[in-house]
Specification:
single chain; globular; 2 strands; 61% helix; 5 helices; mainly alpha; 99 residues
Length: 99
């Protein structure tokens, strides 16, 4: 979940989406999502490749927290029973169940 929150916050900083404060709805800018994901992937892969544990800590501190506004939005969705995560069940037992 931390990686989801970090990606959300990183993309929000890149203005890949905006939130309408009057309606609570989000609008996605797909071109900025693409550019933001490219930038995020580059940053993460560079930290991993360099073994930059300190940089990762700074990244987590900067992007790894749920804002109050996002938590309110998530709570609103939960109250309406709207799922916010897709969970993939995978593995050999799922693909080809054992007898």
């Amino acid at each position: 979940m931390l990686s989801d929150i970090a990606a959300y916050n990183f993309l929000e900083e890149k203005r890949a989406f905006t939130r309408d404060s009057a309606t609570g709805k989000y609008r996605v800018d797909f071109a900025k999502v693409q550019a933001g994901m490219d930038s995020l992937s580059s940053r993460i892969l560079t930290m991993q490749g360099n073994g930059d544990y300190d940089g990762l800590g700074v990244f987590q501190d900067q992007y790894g927290k749920i804002s109050r506004q996002l938590q309110r939005d998530l709570d609103r969705l939960k109250a309406k029973k709207i799922p916010v995560d897709v969970v993939f069940q995978q593995g050999s037992g799922i693909i080809a169940p054992r007898p």
